[in-house]
Every structure is written in C-alpha cells, then in structure tokens.
Amino acid sequence: MLLRGKKVVIFGIANEKSIAWAIARLFHEQGAELAITYAGEALEKRVRPLSESIDAAAILPCNVASDEEIASVFTALAKIWECVDIIIHAVAFANKEELKGSILSTTREGFATAMDISVYSFLAVMKAAQPMMLGRGGSALTLSFYGSMKVFPSYNVMGLAKAALEASVRYLSEALGHDGIRVNAISAGPIRTLAAAGVNGFHTILNQVELKTPLRRSITQEDVAGAALYLSSNLASGVSGEIHYVDGGYNIIGL
Question: Is 243 in contact with 185 (CB distance < 8 Å)?
Fold first, then answer.
C-alpha cells in the first residue's frame, strides 16, 4: 500500500487502453484516493464508468486548453480534500493530418495546438495545483516518448511537443522543488492506445521496436503504471527532473 491515503488527480484517461487508466487502477490498489478528469461529453461516457469502478472521489470535466476549467477542477477538489499529493498528466494532442508525411506537414495553427494541449497544459495544471500541494512532499508525473530525442516516421510535431514537455519537466522540477514537489516524466515505448492510433504508420514503429528492443517485446500499460507508482511514491523521494525510460531498453540501441 505505497500510496495509502494519498490524494491523486489524473488527467488524460480516454478509455480502458489508456496508460493513465492503468496508472489509476494500480494507484487505487495501492491505497490512493483518486480524482479523475475527462475532456468532453464523448469521453465522459467511457471515463465515468471506469472511474466509478475504482470508487473515484471525484469525476470532473476539464478541457486542459482552458485555464478556467483547470482552475475549476481544483476549486471543486478543495471542497472535498484539504490537499493534493500527486498529479498525473497524460495529455497529448495533435491534428491527425499532421501526423503523416514529414514535419513539413505542420501548420502554424497545428503547431500551436499541439504545444498548447501537450505541453503548456502541464504547466497550467501545476500552477493551479501548487497551492494544494505545498508541504506535502508530493510529486507530478507526465508521459513522453522517445520521439522527443530521435526521429520517428510521421511523429512530426508531436516529437517537437514531447521535447518541449521534457524541458518543462526540468524547469518545473526546479521551480517547484522549493515547495517539496518532485516533477518527473516517463518516456514510454510505443503502446497500442487511442492516441497512438492517430500516428500514421504506428504499427510499423511498434513492430520495429519489438524486433530491436533488448527485451524483444512491446511495452504494456502495466509496465508504465509500475514505474509511475515508484516515481510517485516515497520510494523515489530523492528523484526529480528525470526522464525515466520504460521502453524495454530500446533507447540504448544504436543499430
């Protein structure tokens, strides 16, 4: 029960295949009390039954492109919780037409959208969460991908966004460290999720990684959830500003 009594807010569950859902299930098993957000009515139909199945303390709407909606999440939580211990940010988005071809497919508007939702939202969430996290020895965790460091076919603007997200982890870890808040990211190997399905040629990427990764298998949502549990618990009390790879070792391979 590594998270007994911890208050956790999870952004980014889309369905039962989401990495964020695997994290929510494991955190629940480890004693955490959860608040879960959803983005819009369409996702609410999927997210609410999942959240209810693990007795979530709150199920709240949140469009992370809106500072007002992010603030409303923590306003609502302040009515039922005195504090927040852990933030899980599993949010990313880019227009599907820009996740095909080359980086030259990126439009100015598409670039701004990807950066706003995939990167700035993490900063916005942490600004809103900070007052409820002071003095708790808490942690924040976001999700990245190796496309931030190396070129993957059609990943395009999301690669740029993940690189910016990883930089934000480092800057946030310094900015929030004075408050005792740790900030880290998991760079997960390719996993069959709703978000991954939007990347043109994703199955080719997945197959190549399975062939070349030292473990010779693809990563599961549960693999990532286990690492998230470690990074969010007191076991990682001295870890902040890190990009932790959960990719079967793929990132060490040269050829």
Answer: yes
Q: Give the model confidence (pLDDT) of 31-89 as tens digits.
A: 999 999 999 999 999 999 999 999 999 999 999 999 999 999 999 999 999 999 999 99
Joined tokens for residue 81: 């919780």
**Residue whose token pair is 């549960």:** 222
Beta strand 33-38 with 7-11 is parallel
Kindly calculate the radius of gyration of the chain based on its CA atoms and give it in whole angstroms: 17
Q: Which domains can be identified in the chain, with CATH numbers?
A: 7-246 (3.40.50.720)
Say if pTM beats, i.e. exceeds, 0.85. yes
> 202-249 pLDDT, tens per residue?
888 888 899 999 999 999 999 999 999 999 999 999 999 999 999 999
Strands across the sheet with 139-144, in order?
A: 58-61, 33-38, 7-11, 86-89, 139-144, 182-188, 243-246
Residue whose token pair is 């996290």: 133
Strands 58-61 and 182-188: unpaired
Beta-bridged to residue 187, according to DSSP, are 144, 245
> Would you say 73 and 62 are in contact if contact means Cβ atoms under 8 Å apart?
yes
Give the DSSP H or E segment for 10. strand 7-11
Q: Which 3 state secondary structure label does DSSP give 231? A: helix
Nearest to 121 by CA among 161, 153, 176: 161
Coil, strand or helix at 159: helix
Q: Which residues are the active-site residues?
A: 155, 162
Contact between 96 and 199 (Cβ < 8 Å): no
